[in-house]
Amino acid sequence: MTESTVGQRAESMTNDQGGFPAQEQEPPGSTSAMDPVPDHGEETYKGSGKLEGLRALVTGGDSGIGRAVAIAFAREGADVALSYLPDEQEDAESTAELVRAAGRTAVLCPGDLTAEATCEQVVEKSVQELGGLDVLVNNAGAQWARDEGLEQMSSERMDRIFKTNLYALMWMTRAALPHLGKGASIINVSSIQAWEPSTTLLDYAATKAAINNFTVNLAAEVGPRGIRVNAVAPGPIWTPLQPATKPAEAMEEFGADTPLGRAGQPSEVAPAFVFLASPRDASYVSGTVLGVTGGKPVF
Ligand code: NAD
Ligand code: MG
Predict the structure, then answer these.
(1) Probe ligand 1: pick from 241, 290, 296, max atoms within 8 Å of CB?
(2) Can you give the residue range of the structural domain that contains 161?
(3) Cβ pair 135, 183 in contact under 8 A
(4) Residue 88: CB within 6 Å of ligand 1?
(5) CA 26/CA 143 separation, integer angstroms
(6) Considering the domain boundaries, does residue 288 fall inside one?
(7) Is 204 annotated in the active site?
(8) For 80-129, how does the pLDDT look when each residue is reduced to its tens digit (9 = 90+)?
(9) Where is the composition biased (Polar residues) (predicted)?
(10) What pLDDT, in 10s, does the model give residues 185-222?
(11) How many angstroms separate the alpha carbon of residue 152 from the centre of ligand 1?
(12) How many DSSP H helices and E strands does the chain contain?
């Protein structure tokens, strides 16, 4: 039997429309409740020492894109701290097991990052248990797409989306910076929504546009210290975030409107993070936003 490529595996997981069976979960969503369970590169990702000896903190590292990043980073030789919501303990332990199976250290940091003090505690715990910090991946994110328009949007929702996607990212980064030295890097998670916003994601899309601006500006601020700042902008990716925040039927055509005609799997996004984190491969790459969108433009 010939070995299938990651893309072939990803394609075989979608239906004729490029989407998935109708399904819904409550936030934050769990991996095992998904049909099909996403591909995080468990069977396919092969490391080659690109991140040997680095220490990384990945927010939202329990599931989805964060889990794929944790697996890839560990197989490339990095120790990984994972931050996640307390409700996601089961997903976080599965990811930690995969990191340890790669022979690396996994540190578990449960906590709600919409509180400033929690962000500081998560950074401190990671630094202490990893013995320092070289890469911060600001990947935690929240969205909600089951309401109808701005007039129905609660202030509680706006607060949660902006605090999770923007405030937490700034609090985490501010707490991490004193620990980052020359060659270290920060990778933020943007979205295709920054360029092509959906009306149902008005607040979420605005936070992602702000993250792009923040990325470029912070790169200018900390560049003189030898710290690189970049972002990855995913298109539609099959993760718990989707069934946990959108109507069930939206899953049936999820990703079908991309040039490649399907959603991506977390395993197809992780290599972009490995590249940006690598002090050798991406030594001159800072202030950029790398699209992994199935063909949609990010400029
Ligand atoms: P996911 O649900 O697997 O991951 C999001 C994670 O964010 C959760 O696992 C959770 O641990 C964390 N999180 C949410 N609120 C939090 C809080 N208050 N405190 C601490 N952690 C919190 O989904 P994902 O799709 O892998 O999302 C990862 C990132 O990718 C997000 O920033 C998301 O906006 C972005 N993104 C996703 C897609 C997609 O189609 N899946 C597309 C573009 C961008
Ligand atoms: Mg999760």
Answers:
(1) 241
(2) 20-26+46-141+154-292
(3) no
(4) yes
(5) 12
(6) yes
(7) yes
(8) 999 999 999 999 999 999 999 999 999 999 999 999 999 999 999 999 99
(9) 1-17
(10) 999 999 999 999 999 999 999 999 999 999 999 999 99
(11) 23
(12) 8, 7
